[in-house]
Design brief:
single chain; Arc Repressor Mutant, subunit A; 2 domains; 4 strands; elongated; Tscrpt_reg_AsnC-like; sequence-specific DNA binding; Lrp/AsnC ligand binding domain-containing protein; transcription; transcription regulation
C-alpha cells in the first residue's frame, strides 16, 4: 500500500452500489454499470488490496434479536499515552461494538450494545472499571436511533 490509489468514476459507482446492496452479483452489478462482471471482479479485488473495501457486512436489526440497549460511553484516561493499552483491553469486551479515539472532553468514545440493563451494568461496573488507565466514564443511553445512513461517495471535481 505505497502509492495513493486514484479512484475513477467506475470505482466510486461500484463502491456506492455495493454500499447499498453488498449481495449483488458481479454480473448484475456489471449490467447495471454497463461493464462486464469480470471488470467488476478486478475492480473489487483492487479496492480490497488497497484497503478501501474491507469486506461486507450483514445489516441486522439488533432489537429484533433481543439487544434492547445501545449506550455510548465517554472514557477519560489517566494519561493519553495509555490509549493503545486501554484499547487492547476494550477489544476484549464483546458488548463494545465501536471504539473511537476522540478530541474534546473524552479520550475515547465507545458504543455498547446489550440485551438488557443488567448486561449494561456488568459492562460499566465490572468490565470497564477493572481496566487500568481509565480514570472515569460518562454513559449516554440511546432512546432511539432516528437514522443511520451510508456516506454518499462522490468523485472530486478538480
Amino acid at each position: 500500500m505505497g502509492a495513493k490509489l486514484n479512484l475513477d468514476k467506475l470505482d466510486l459507482q461500484i463502491i456506492s452500489e455495493m454500499m447499498e446492496d453488498a449481495q449483488i452479483s458481479y454480473a448484475d452489478l456489471g449490467k447495471k454499470l454497463f461493464v462486464s462482471g469480470g471488470t467488476i471482479h478486478v475492480r473489487i479485488k483492487k479496492l480490497q488490496e488497497h484497503g478501501i473495501v474491507k469486506g461486507t457486512k450483514l445489516n441486522v436489526d439488533l432489537k429484533a434479536l433481543g439487544y434492547d440497549i445501545t449506550a455510548f460511553v465517554g472514557i477519560f484516561l489517566e494519561k493519553s499515552s495509555l490509549y493503545d493499552t486501554v484499547a487492547k483491553d476494550l477489544r476484549k469486551i464483546p458488548e463494545i461494538v465501536r471504539l473511537n479515539y476522540t478530541t474534546g472532553n473524552y479520550s475515547m468514545f465507545i458504543e455498547v450494545v446489550c440485551k438488557d440493563i443488567n448486561q449494561l451494568r456488568f459492562v460499566l461496573h465490572d468490565a470497564l472499571q477493572k481496566i487500568k488507565g481509565i480514570e472515569r466514564t460518562e454513559t449516554f443511553i440511546s432512546l432511539d436511533e432516528s437514522f443511520n445512513r451510508k456516506v454518499e461517495v462522490v468523485q472530486d471535481v478538480a
